[in-house]
Amino acid sequence: MPGSGEHDRRATHGPPAAADFDALYDARYGDVVAMVYALVGDLAEAQDLAQEAFCRAWQRWGDVSRYDDPLAWIRRVAANLATSRWRRGRVARAHWGRERTADVPPLDPDHVALVAALRRLPADQRRAVVLHHLIDLPVADVAREMDAAVGTVKSWLHRGRAALATELAKSTEEVTYRD
């Protein structure tokens, strides 16, 4: 953070230590995977994207380590990678869906309903909900990370929660109706 001893030490005593990156990676890799998983709904893909985001941070660690919040930069890169991969993978997913085998064990219905409901939210609402409710970032931090006003983030959260409640209520009704 600006004005903190850590930032000043780095600025006056050469490049940041690799140990700083290692500590950040060890402490926060799981958080980044969880955030990306909530965005993409696939654990293996979330792990790949989180790893790629940390690799890019390591490549630029001299600059990234001097940011007020290097983790926010890593999360933003991971979210951008998720969006890019989603855009490039539309055709592949459509093909994969046609070729998928039927002998895959079923997922927990609650998990499926939540991931499906999250996918139906607009990207900004989904990201705000994930950062605030799943990553437990305060609204002000979500706003800073998303480069949006606090009021805008509050609006996205309100709309996102309302849409999730509606979607999850529908899925609960469908399950109840089928039983």
Automatic annotation (TrEMBL):
The keyword Coiled coil does not apply. Residues 24-89 form the RNA polymerase sigma-70 region domain. The keyword Ribosomal protein does not apply. InterPro entries: RNA_pol_sigma-70-like, RNA_pol_sigma-70_dom, RNA_pol_sigma-E_actinobac, RNA_pol_sigma70_r2, RNA_pol_sigma70_r4_t2, RNA_pol_sigma_r2, RNA_pol_sigma_r3/r4-like, WH-like_DNA-bd_sf. Belongs to the sigma-70 factor family. ECF subfamily. Residues 112-164 form the RNA polymerase sigma factor 70 region 4 type domain. Keywords: DNA-binding, Sigma factor, Transcription, Transcription regulation. This is SigE family RNA polymerase sigma factor. CDD domains: Sigma70_r4. The lineage of its organism: Bacteria, Bacillati, Actinomycetota, Actinomycetes, Micromonosporales.
